[in-house]
Amino acid sequence: MKRVFLILMVILLSTGYNYAQENDKFGSDPQTCKMNLSLYKEFVRQKNYADAMEGWRVVFDICPKATKSIYLDGAKIYKDAIKKNKDAALKDAYVDTLMLIYERRIENFNQRESVKGRQGFDLYKYRKSDYEKAYEYMKISVEAGKATSSVLQSYMQVTLKMYKEQKIDPGEVVNNFSMCSKQIGDMIKEQEDTNKVAKYKITQNNIEGLFIKSGAADCDVLTTYYTPKFEADKENIELLKTITRFLSMNKCTDSELFMKASEALYPIEPSAQAAYNIAILSLKAKQYSKAIEYYKKAVEKESDTEVKAKYLFEMARVYYAQSQYASARTYAQKAAKMKSKWGEPYILIAKLYAASSNDCGEDKFEQNSVFWVAVDKLNTAKSIDPSVAAEANKLIASYKKGFPNKEEAFFKGINEGDSYTVKCWINETTKARF
After folding, report:
1. Helix/strand/coil (H/E/C) assignment for every residue in 100-117
2. pLDDT tens digit sequence for 398-415
3. Domain layout of the chain by residue ranges
4. Which run of H or of E encompasses 431?
């Protein structure tokens, strides 16, 4: 009998507990809650947000814990109302309700750190004058690492506004950018959907553009902000990458911090970017052999063909500056092959040929024939890349003045249009022109 009694008590208590849970979820009038929940849901499904509003309000008032979708649907309903309503006072009231929806969602379903970001995003979108409050809302989400890509971009927009209005200092702008940049970078790394990756990269570019546009990103501010961080944690790979990236992006590569961070980064993680940074630093120090060494390492480790082409072309220019024309041509040709429809490598090769005119050939005719192949390269450059046409045409006009004349050609038995091979290290065949 005692056992039966205990079983009955458990059943009664369990029933009471379940009833209490049900009552807590659907409020004091479960029937009305469920009916209006079903009613407004159907309107939302049809995207008929205006008709969904009345039933939604009932659910929001009497059973706010029924389901989290109340708040997701409520945001849709009121954003639609804000968008479509022309009355300023009513629109403002709708914005207030939208903000209340976010507050109640946090109250009943928590997720404060992520919800605050969306709340701040919508507040700034629909009421620009409340940018300070929107900033504080989004800050909660960003600092917790819970912001979406759109919130990250909006946060940088409001950061720019706050800085212009002198509400925050340059250091806070740099700190905000550092957080946003890292988080959008992580999203790109972790995302497998190529469409989403493309979207995130657009956001990343926008965030960087806002930072540069802010005016806070000068070399002194960046150096002041990052130097103590560097000194405190010299082996932190992510920090070293951030420092070198930001300083490079803001053209602060002459700074001592950039040099130190680059040199500290390469032994830990010998990446293409780190090798490139050291190559640039070596160039500035006029250590050309070291620069070439690290350019080659950067090329070897780089996977992006366009970036690799950039490195190859810059290496070609270093060889050109040292009058090592054959090596310069080799790397210019590699760069051109790596990136199609790019005229600059061909312009460089033309300059290499022209610079060799006094050294290639045993007489004036042979020396002047070098300008034929130089003009050939310039014609190629402008034919594949219209952006270099102006420079190419200017050089063509200059180089044509150096063409051999008919008298010089006569003694060589060369007529206009004949095939002719330019000698020396160039060793290219062209057509005679006078």
Report:
1. HHHHHHHHHHCCHHHHHH
2. 999 999 988 888 888 888
3. 341-434
4. strand 428-431
